[in-house]
Amino acid sequence: MQNLITRFIKDESGATAIEYGLIAALIAVALIAGAKAIGGGVDAKLAEASSGAG
Question: What is the 3-state secondary structure (H, E, C) of 1-54?
Answer without folding.
Answer: CHHHHHHHHHCCHHHHHHHHHHHHHHHHHHHHHHHHHHHHHHHHHHHHHHHHHC
